[in-house]
Amino acid sequence: MTDLSARVLPPPPLMIGDVVVDPPILQAPMAGFTNAAFRQIVREFGGSGLQATEMVNARGFVWLDEHEAEHPDRLWGVAEEPRPLAVQIWDNQPETMAKVGRRLVEDYRVSVVDINFGCPVRQVTEKAHSGSYLLREPNRMYQIIEQLVAACAPTPVTAKIRLGCTRDKINCNEVARVVEDAGAAALTVHGRTAQDFFKGSADWERISEIKSHLRDIPLIGNGDLDSAEKVVEAFRRYDVDGVMIARACLGRPWLFAQAAAALRGEAVPSDPTLTEQRDCMLHHFRLVVDRFGEDKGTLLMRKYACCYAHGKRGARHFRTHVAKVSTAAEFYAVVEEYFPVD
């Protein structure tokens, strides 16, 4: 492993093909959460060098396209958003992935097309033989990446993986070589196996070891980064070119700005006051309702509201009530009465 004890911060910008990611802090694609409203909130705070959509089912995209239906909700906002922006897709058929990748490049002008080889959810793995299931089939991974790279050129293609399917079958080093040999422009590694889901701690030593198995492409580490201090530690201690923040940002979209300041050697901004956090959540709610309407928007916002309250005094009481709202009036009333205050 490279001696990183003397590594100087801030780290240089991350290059994914010709795409400049500065700062090298990426927002993870998270199903059900990282839609256009959430991405806008993160963008307003700043600090993320590359944002990503929710993962898109490539086969579902093709079906909608063939039936002249509206493209997936998960692509809401993509065409108009500031760049750089990544879209993550998943499936196990190289031809389907290539077809969708080309549409994303031609019609949506995305900056990066990312492949999900890390999702551990049973509906994706055991039922669809996709996501982290494909870690047991490196040859199939190679075919998917190779065809997608050819279809998307010159737009870079990246891959996100886990350490392996199970703790006794960790094959991330082998998979990393396959990813690079197939033509991917970067590799993101979540430091758990699919078997772990999100239990235990991410193994950053294992992530760091992968770097020696790559020749030229950057390595991005992911897992348990829930503070600016941990982001700084990741760059100081481990051989990574970038980091990806996931679940910790869902109720704290200002985390990226805090991490970016820390990497620049500046004072880390304090968390917003509870009143400011409440106002941020209400802004988020209005963005969702503007897109999906009051009924669907209110239902979608329940889970976000729980994230904003997480870890605060009275959060459980707030969650109990906000989980039952179905109208905007009910949402505002519950926030007014139960959201934690300063």
UniProtKB/TrEMBL annotation:
Gene3D superfamilies: Aldolase class I, Putative flavin oxidoreducatase, domain 2. SUPFAM superfamilies: FMN-linked oxidoreductases (SSF51395). GO terms for molecular function: flavin adenine dinucleotide binding; tRNA binding; tRNA dihydrouridine synthase activity. Residues 27-336 form the DUS-like FMN-binding domain. The active site is at residue 119. It comes from the Bacteria. InterPro entries: Aldolase_TIM, DUS-like_FMN-bd, DUS_fam, DusB-like, tRNA-dHydroUridine_Synthase_C, tRNA_hU_synthase_CS. It catalyses: a 5,6-dihydrouridine in tRNA + NADP(+) = a uridine in tRNA + NADPH + H(+); a 5,6-dihydrouridine in tRNA + NAD(+) = a uridine in tRNA + NADH + H(+). This is tRNA-dihydrouridine synthase. The gene is dus_2.
